[in-house]
UniProtKB/TrEMBL annotation:
Pfam families linked to this entry: 2OG-FeII_Oxy (PF03171), DIOX_N (PF14226)
Lineage of the species this protein comes from: Eukaryota, Viridiplantae, Streptophyta, Embryophyta, Tracheophyta
GO MF entry, a single one: dioxygenase activity
Keyword Ribonucleoprotein: no
Domain Fe2OG dioxygenase: 138-237
Species for this entry: Corchorus olitorius
Protein name: Oxoglutarate/iron-dependent dioxygenase
Keyword set, alphabetical order: Dioxygenase, Iron, Metal-binding, Oxidoreductase
KW Mitochondrion (keyword) present: no
Length: 292
């Protein structure tokens, strides 16, 4: 299994997990409250709507850059932190009535699954057990995406091409198709597998693995028939964590490809180059040393 995870993370940057331990009824209950949330009347949701990125729990439309993005996205989203639970739960939506209870349990399970997967990845990379524990995976936040049916899917994307800036993402994509991954110049679909969890490698895991693992670009296409709701749990380092290629993975033959930096510095660059992964990574790259 460790080999399979590594192979998929090197080749695709994406894989799906079945028998992941998150109870099926919890996943269904989660999906139900997320759908119910977005189906509530506008007046019920209006107080959560905000364009202020500093607001911890907020509902917004399209991306974080609504005013300056070239094309708007066919997407609403709700985002909030999930850890530590006692601190953040008070800011979560109060409706639907079951939201807090269900999402609390779901987020604890998602964090547990992420920790297990990170442990397999550290084993596969040959890093010590617990390498990603603590600061590298301290933050957990949830983004619930709601993609309404789109009258003309050829004119709008649900989410344009991007890489996730964090360490690793745990996604419940439900049963409706829409997610695509860019590989070898082509978009390939991530076919929904009932109750599977989609996992993708974020920019920080690519950097820490010194480019062994791939943070793949992905996007979401729209459809004209049904709405699509997805829940993405983002596992991230805390803001002041120093990120750099793991020392055991670099030596005289494998020089580090990135300089050390604070995670918050990466986020700043990432959000000012929204959607362009090469530009986001550029300031952190080290020139390969050529020896003659
Ligand atoms: C994301 C994302 C995919 C989806 O939230 O970063 O890529 O299918 N979501 O909603
Ligand atoms: Ni993403």
């Amino acid at each position: 299994m460790v080999e399979q995870i590594l192979k998929a993370s090197e080749e695709f940057g994406f894989f799906q997990v079945i028998n992941h331990g998150i109870p099926e009824n919890l996943m269904n209950q989660g999906m139900d409250v997320f759908k119910e949330f977005f189906e509530m009347p506008t007046e019920e949701k209006a107080m959560l709507y905000s364009e202020d990125p500093k607001k911890t729990c907020r509902l917004s439309t399209s991306s974080a850059n609504y005013d300056w993005e070239k094309n708007h996205l066919w997407r609403d989203n709700l985002r909030h932190p999930c850890h530590p639970l006692e601190e953040c739960i008070k800011d979560w939506p109060e409706k639907p009535i079951k939201y807090r209870e269900v999402v609390a349990t779901f987020s604890v399970e998602a964090k547990k699954l992420a920790s297990r997967i990170l442990e397999f990845i550290s084993e596969g990379l040959g890093l010590e057990s617990g390498y990603f524990r603590d600061k590298l995976s301290e933050e957990l936040s949830l983004v619930v995406n709601y993609y309404p049916p789109c009258p003309d899917p050829s004119l709008a994307l649900g989410f344009s091409k991007h890489c996730d800036p964090n360490l690793i993402t745990i996604l419940h994509q439900g049963d409706i198709y829409g997610l695509q991954v860019f590989k070898d110049g082509e978009w390939i679909g991530v076919e929904p597998l009932h109750n599977a969890i989609v996992v993708n490698i974020g920019n920080q895991l690519q950097i820490i693995s010194n480019n062994k693992l791939k943070s793949a670009e992905h996007r979401v296409v729209t459809n004209s028939k049904v709405s699509r709701t997805t829940a993405a749990f983002f596992i991230s380092p805390s803001d002041d964590t120093i990120i750099e290629p793991a020392k055991p993975l670099t030596d005289a033959c494998n020089s580090p490809l990135y300089r050390p930096f604070e995670y918050k510095e990466f986020l700043r660059t990432f959000f000012s180059n929204m959607g362009n992964n090469d530009l986001a990574l550029e300031p952190f790259k080290l020139q390969a040393k050529l020896s003659i």
